[in-house]
Amino acid sequence: MKPYVKFGLLTTVIIGTLAWLAVGGISDTKSYYKEVSELKKMGDEVYTKRLRVAGDVAEGSVQRNGHEVRFLLKQNDLTVPVLYDAMDPLPDTFKGGAQAVAHGRMGRDGVFHASKIDAKCASKYEAKPGKNYQPPGQTAPPASGAKASL
Amino acid sequence: MENLGALSLILAFCLSIYAVFGSIVGKWKRRPFLVKSAERAVYAQWALQSFAAAFLVYALLTCDFRLAYVAAHVNLAMPTLYKFTAWWGGQEGSLLLWSWILACYSAVVVWQNRGKFREMMPWVTATLMITQAFFLLLITYPMSPFEVLAVGKEIRAVPDGNGLNPLLQYWSMAIHPPTLYLGYVGFIVPFAFAMGSLITRQPGDAWIHTTRRWTLVTWLFQSMGILIGAGWAYAVLGWGGYWGWDPVENASLLPWITATAFLHSVMMQEKKGMMKVWNMVLVSATFFLCIFGTFLTRSGVVSSVHAFAQSPIGPYFAVFLSIHIAATAWLILDRLGYLKSEAHLESVLSRESSFLFNNLILLASCFSILWGTMFPVISEAVTGEKISVDAPFFNRVNIPIALFLLLLTGIGPLIAWRRSSFESLKKAFLWPTAGGIALSGVLFALGIRHLYALMSFGLCFFVLITVAIEFVKGARAIASKSGQNLLMAMVELTHRNTRRYGGYMVHVAIVMMFIGFTGAAFNKERTLQVAMGDQFELGRYHLKVTEVKEGQNDNYSWGHAVVEVYQGGRKIDTLTPEQRLYSAGQGQQSSVVSIRRRLHEDLYLNFAGMQDGKAIIQAYIFPLVGWIWLGFGALVFGTLVCLIPSKVKFEFPKTKVMGVTPASAQPKAVSGD
How many Cβ pairs within 8 Å bridge chains A and B? Predict the structure, then answer.
């Protein structure tokens, strides 16, 4: 049985090391997913945690200055100002009206400092027919009644 | 017409159900004709699905905008190629492709084995067809690609469609999904044979021998799919990364990892009769992870930049997976007696043990990735808060794992079976170790201080030397007998045992990729606003923006910056990073980066648009990244070599299993003590 004992010991060491790395990795990189409204309710811990904030990019709020980009992330009538100044280019899908997730930290100045932005155009490619494809001059009932299953 | 498409899918669904019951009942009641008819049902449902797929493709190519799927994924301006690839550009079409590939595989399996494995085949057919029925259910009911647009009760076409997502209008995105699916779906075949073998209590390794090639081919497709996806991300997403630990990427990597583990541990079963239970677990896990990956990408359970819509198919997958996992677990536990190991681990310093560590570490990696990917879901269930982990988490765990695997890649093939003495180890590994350490030392002296990078380069060299020694040693032996030159002798050597030497080639391919991955430690980047005629510097390059050109075609309007590249005062290249505005997707932007690819580094330029009359240019240098794509080529080559039949048939000395008695009856007789 000796080889099995040795093997078991080595296995324990390896798994232990990896588990240690994993636990450290999680506590260092974990970030909390919040919507804009939840962010507003967080109180002081908003400044201490890594966050990803989800909302819509407010139309017309995007200001670019070199690689620095400022915009408002909004949910219903709540907004959060976001400053993005990392090196990576913003995704092509990022623009006013898109759904976006900003990764970063909340600053004491009330501005969210993002290091990464994910964006997707609000379900554009799985869009509901009817709304988008309305032939001009027609006033047919949209979305709900527009898809007929065979 | 569209009725016929939908109808043929419904008929195919019925036939696949018939095939399941036909083969099981036929086997049970010993009615060979019923079994035969079930096999014919497999062909028939393949034909029906092919017809449905052909109809969908026809509708896409002819822009039949009465169909919701066509209207959502094609527009008139798109080139024909992308109209075709729009087949897998959306949810419904992708699932149809998945289902159709499965139908093709099933038909091939049934055809290949029409005269063989009469015991096992009905169960293989049944296993295949259960999954087939599941996917057909998805595309007939909740996710039909043949839904039409209607106003009230009248079917009505729209004048033009939405068009394919511009990000997908790129050649490698055209082939990435089908390649990956060929991999994903293919793993069901080894799984089906494994189940067939378990259910019918086959004593031997017949299922492994018959599915060896399948496994290798599917593994090849999966590797290609993943790497093509990485290449696409590199060339299209505009930030120069090829891997971001996104849930969808992880989903494709998970089954690849377990499949890689399986490809290795299967050798233990073939040569030593060990790890039989483990192989069953691995082959099942691979299949489940393939289904799970499809579920992850297709249901929107984890949010992803790949932006697939939320959809109602999640629960279907959950039910399918739970039933399968429970059934498989029960089956394996119930048949443990037939999966007894024929040999024992004799020493920690042995080939067996290196295989065990290889498997252990691959599985650890797989588990960590699964854990990280599912962390938001798990944490929400436990604490009520959605917490996610980022790329650093995955890197922190997986870089050490990868380095350890690299070490094993060097050690494994050279270490003896059963047990190895320190003496023989010293002999085998003296030069490789010295070489690896020497290279790290030299790089350190040259000023590289990145610990992982030093280790990685050292290990890469270590593995290369071990492989080189294997080839040279073998080739010399042949050359001395036959008088061929060394190169011809190497070809001969490879031909004699293609699996072994093809395997080494794949190892070299992996080393090449590691060289490329390690280059990422030295990336350089700069973002600038440049006026026309201005120069800027990056690394050794001087870059000068001379003009910005604009233009338009039916599909998109474009603008590109013309950037001249100088090195040492001499103009060496002109790059034209481009930005496009597609008419598809209501004016979606898409960047087409311009890359000067060289083996030592890529110069990578992205044109991020104009501001105040100045061009915004993002310039990057990615050292060594080209080695990843070279490694890709080598991997394909090596795997193809593995698939060539060996000239010499090897008989492995192994305990022969003459018959098996259930463990409860006669435990001693089976274990071979």
Answer: 180
Confidence class of residue B637 from pLDDT cuts 50, 70 and 90? Answer: very high
Best A7, A11, A12, A18 residue to mutate vs chain B (most B CBs within 10 Å): A18
For tokens 């080889």, the residue is: A3
Residues of A in contact with B415 (CB under 8 A): none
Q: Which two tokens stand for residue B133?
A: 């029925």
Tell whether B134 and B200 lie within a shared domain: no
Q: Is the pLDDT of residue B177 over 50?
A: yes
Selected residues 402-431 of chain B with any CB under 8 Å from a CB in chain A: 404
In 3-state terms chain A splits into helix, strand, coil percentages (rounded to 5) of 30, 35, 40
CB contact at 8 A, B46 and B104: yes
- For an interface test with A, the pick among B94, B95, B160, B360 (most A C-beta atoms closer than 10 Å) comes out as B360
Answer yes or no: do A31 and B388 touch at CB < 8 A.
yes
The whole-angstrom separation of Cα B125 and Cα B419 is: 42
Record the tokens describing residue B509, joined without a space: 């391919």
Please, what is the angle between helix B32-61 and helix B2-28, to 10°?
160
pLDDT, residue B673, reads 36
What is the tally of structural domains in chain B?
A: 4
Summary mean pLDDT of chain B: 87
Evaluate whether residue A61 is within a structural domain. Answer: yes
Tell whether B506 and B615 lie within a shared domain: no
Quick check: is B633 in a domain?
no
Alpha-carbon gap: A96 to the closest alpha carbon of chain B (Å): 12
Whole-prediction pTM: 0.87
Distance CA B225, CA B237 (A): 17
Assess: ipTM above 0.85.
no
Clarify whether residues B542 and B601 are in a common domain.
Answer: yes
How far is the C-alpha of A130 from the C-alpha of A149, rounded, in Å? Answer: 14
The pLDDT tens digits for B393-412 are: 898 899 999 999 999 998 88
Residue B605 lies in a domain: yes
Per the structure, the complete domain to which residue A88 belongs is given by: 31-122
Judge whether B144 is closer than 8 Å to chain A, CB to CB. yes
* Residues B367 and B228 reside in one and the same domain: yes
Chain B hits for A121, CB-CB cut-off 8 Å, are 307, 585-586, 588
Of B521, B540, B569, which residue sits at a domain end? B521
Tens digit of each residue's pLDDT (9 = 90 or more) over B116-158: 888 889 999 999 999 999 999 999 888 888 988 877 777 778 8
Q: Would you say residue B637 lies in a domain?
A: no
CA distance B585 to chain A (A): 7
Residues B180 and B241 in one domain: yes
Measure the CA–CA gap between B525 and A137, rounded to whole angstroms: 51
Q: How far is it, in rounded angstroms, from Cα A10 to Cα A17?
A: 11
Locate A7 and state its tokens: 């093997």
